[in-house]
């Protein structure tokens, strides 16, 4: 019993130490990824859309940045989850809005609830997807007029931009690897190690 307690205490101290450790390099790459990911989307919006049509940059992308640049090892931050979660939620949000357009107290919870279930079912759970569904049913102005185009732009196009930036900035150093379970990334790293040995 005493050994178990000492071991648990030692492991707890280590976990607390690791969790509170400030890694400036890691924070730097997280900042750069988020800055360029959101920056590119915001730049495209400012250059190609009127100020009244500021729909290319949606709020759920900010939450996605926290995951894909700041918590890159999380299963919820992987490319399948990023793209699948947003796209599925956008489809559900638009569909719910078309079926129940004027009753927000039904459409909002229905869109978010269904998006969670469908993300779970398809193994694409991505928390910002719930916000993407909610935006589709609760926004006023241009987004409801887009209909299913909302799925392609801003949702899919924005996700692809965030993903491309994540693939660059999350693989800039040997300590960062994104996506975590990618055969392509593992194959490239093996090839790179093999070249270094020769």
From TrEMBL:
<feature type="domain" description="HPP transmembrane region">
    <location>
        <begin position="22"/>
        <end position="179"/>
    </location>
</feature>
<keyword id="KW-1133">Transmembrane helix</keyword>
<protein>
    <submittedName>
        <fullName>HPP family protein</fullName>
    </submittedName>
</protein>
<dbReference type="Pfam" id="PF04982">
    <property type="entry name" value="TM_HPP"/>
</dbReference>
<dbReference type="InterPro" id="IPR007065">
    <property type="entry name" value="HPP"/>
</dbReference>
<keyword id="KW-0812">Transmembrane</keyword>
<dbReference type="InterPro" id="IPR058581">
    <property type="entry name" value="TM_HPP"/>
</dbReference>
<feature type="transmembrane region" description="Helical">
    <location>
        <begin position="148"/>
        <end position="169"/>
    </location>
</feature>
<feature type="transmembrane region" description="Helical">
    <location>
        <begin position="55"/>
        <end position="72"/>
    </location>
</feature>
<feature type="transmembrane region" description="Helical">
    <location>
        <begin position="28"/>
        <end position="49"/>
    </location>
</feature>
<keyword id="KW-0472">Membrane</keyword>
């Amino acid at each position: 019993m005493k050994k178990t307690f000492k071991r648990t205490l030692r492991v707890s101290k280590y976990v607390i130490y690791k969790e509170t450790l400030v890694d400036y390099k890691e924070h730097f790459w997280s900042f750069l990824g988020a800055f360029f990911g959101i920056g590119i989307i915001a730049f495209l919006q400012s250059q190609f859309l009127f100020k009244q049509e500021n729909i290319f940059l949606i709020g759920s992308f900010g939450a996605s940045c926290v995951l894909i640049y700041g918590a890159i090892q999380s299963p919820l931050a992987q490319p399948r989850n990023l793209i699948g979660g947003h796209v599925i939620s956008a489809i559900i949000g638009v569909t719910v809005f078309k079926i129940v357009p004027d009753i927000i107290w039904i459409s909002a919870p229905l869109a978010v609830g269904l998006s969670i279930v469908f993300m779970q079912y398809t193994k694409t759970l991505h928390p910002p997807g719930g916000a993407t569904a909610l935006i589709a049913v609760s926004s006023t102005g241009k987004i409801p007029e887009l209909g299913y185009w909302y799925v392609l732009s801003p949702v899919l196009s924005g996700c692809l931009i965030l993903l491309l930036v994540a693939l660059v900035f999350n693989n800039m150093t040997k300590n960062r690897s994104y996506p975590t379970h990618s055969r392509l990334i593992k194959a490239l790293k093996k090839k790179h190690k093999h070249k270094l040995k020769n």
